[in-house]
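Homework help board

Subject: predicted structure for assignment chain

Our instructor gave us this sequence and asked us to write out the predicted structure in token form, then describe one feature. I got the tokens but I'm not sure how to describe them. Can anyone check?
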Amino acid sequence: MARPNLDLIAALRRTARKIEKGSPYQWGHMGSCNCGNLAQELTRLTKAEIHVHALANGRGDWNEQLNDYCPTSGLPMDLLIGEMMEAGLDPDDLKQLERLSDVRILQRLPAEKRYLRHNFRDDVVLYISEWANMLEEQLLAPIKLPHFEWSEQTVLS
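My token output:
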């Protein structure tokens, strides 16, 4: 599961916003699919650069790239995936993002919205947005604020 952190949450929110506002989205393109759009935010590579890295490995889609990921290979796509891992993701997060299949995220959605289609812009935006919300809740959960009772004397002090 993703390691909740501010940079990752912000990247997820930027990704969802960009896709929602019409950023290039094409599920069959390694640089502009679900993972490709998030990779753009985390790595600052363009969709074309991501696509070229993926084709250079010759391994197919994101799922296959992640199955074959080797952090020490030095291959451009493995370096890109490594950068995404450093941001707090793991290979399963990305595989599930590509298929919109993380049960923990889907269970948070209204029942009528749980059957998402991986090649539909609105479904991708919903999934990524809810993922960001979930990670934010996980990040904030351990923070305990002191209980403070307000009184007229407190306000006057």
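Reply (TA_rk): Your tokens look well-formed. For the description, you could write something like this. The first helix runs from residue 6 to 20. That's the kind of observation they're looking for.
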